[in-house]
Amino acid sequence: MEGSGKTPVFDHAEHQHIRYNPLRDTWVLVSAHRMKRPWKGQVEKPPEENIPRHDPLNPLCPGATRVNGEVNPEYDNTFVFDNDFPALQPDSPEPGVSDHPLFQVRAATGVCKVMCFHPWSDITLPLMQISEIKNVIEKWMELIWELGEKYPWVQIFENKGSMMGCSNPHPHCQVWASNFLPNEPSLADRCQRDYYKKNGIPMLLDYANQESQRKVRMVVENEDWIVVVPYWATWPFQTLLLPRRHVLRLIDLTGKEKESLASIMKRLLTKYDNLFEIAFPYSMGWHGAPTGIHLKEDMNHWQLHAHYYPPLLRSATIRKFMVGYEMLAQEQRDLTPEQAAERLRNLSEEHYAMKRQEKET
Ligand code: H2U
């Protein structure tokens, strides 16, 4: 095309470009043609398939003894306990006043909890019943209530799969509450505040409305929720789960929204697992309006949302590395968000493990 005299027409799937991420005030380089390059790099181990339903030596199982000597109850639903190795503890001495702007320090206090989703170790969210996923959502809401009363930020997050640093196959998430607003929510707060001031509508409400009309990045949707590969996604199959209504926090969900959230989570996660027919690894987490002292402030610029960040790119064993250029210049992705959304959208909503089971019987 170069030198042909004709200016090529821009095609986002062919021509590299940069896209703006309005939630982080950053840009991502999109270079879809890089998917064609051969791969001779690291190949990951696929996730373990034969996990025992109950292992008395697994500290997350019902009736098992944890590292600190405590014995878990014989729980048959969700189960929450204080992390025995917490990154944040309620008390910490004051570090004193910094004597130089380059050496700033502040006290960090908080609470870290672990929440088991289910008594079985060989189950994951997409394979759980909608009613069981709803129990998880209700427990999340309780934790936001309880910890959000005191702490300005309560981060619920799930690391799934050893590729994402998860240390235990038992289905679980973590909850870290802190006396400070961490970097990511702090940035999201600033960006949403600025957008609201300029446009008079919460950014992610505006965004959900737009994506509901445009459809190209839609993965799944129902009456109350949408899941899209965001326009500015950096991870190959990253998604953003958004309510259609203006909702500040998880605790504001109605009974119907809890039910439809459980349903859309199951559909999304089934598609994720079906993509490479493995228990799809990811880190996910909820972002809602800050809590604690902020509960009394006007937080209307906020919109509740969940981020899913899966690391895989080409197959069950080939991941995206966020290394050289990403660390030193800016994030870059290899397939367009529209291509990723189309692939996810076209996948079956029947879990591959269920299909296999049906075939065997
Ligand atoms: P991850 O798999 O995401 O690392 O979560 C497991 C958490 O469980 C981890 O934070 C905690 C670890 O500290 N844990 C306990 O609190 N007690 C135990 O006996 C084992 C694991």
TrEMBL record:
UDP-alpha-D-glucose binds at residues 34-37, 67, 83-84, 159, 165-167, 174, 320-321, 325-326, 332. InterPro entries: GalP_UDPtransf1, GalP_UDPtransf1_His-AS, GalP_Utransf_C, GalP_Utransf_N, HIT-like_sf. Keywords: Carbohydrate metabolism, Galactose metabolism, Metal-binding, Nucleotidyltransferase, Transferase, Zinc. This is Galactose-1-phosphate uridylyltransferase. Residues 11-182 form the Galactose-1-phosphate uridyl transferase N-terminal domain. It catalyses: alpha-D-galactose 1-phosphate + UDP-alpha-D-glucose = alpha-D-glucose 1-phosphate + UDP-alpha-D-galactose. It comes from Erpetoichthys calabaricus (Rope fish). The keyword Zinc-finger does not apply. One of its GO terms (molecular function) is UDP-glucose:hexose-1-phosphate uridylyltransferase activity. The active site is at H172 (tele-ump-histidine intermediate). It comes from the Eukaryota. The keyword Nucleotidyltransferase applies. Plays an important role in galactose metabolism. Gene3D superfamilies: HIT-like. Belongs to the galactose-1-phosphate uridylyltransferase type 1 family. Pathway: Carbohydrate metabolism; galactose metabolism. Its EC number is 2.7.7.12. Residues 39-59 are annotated as: Disordered. Residues 190-354 form the Galactose-1-phosphate uridyl transferase C-terminal domain. GO terms for biological process: galactose catabolic process via UDP-galactose, Leloir pathway. It holds the Pfam family GalP_UDP_tr_C. One of its GO terms (cellular component) is cytoplasm. Residues 42-56 have a biased composition (Basic and acidic residues). Its cofactor is Zn(2+).
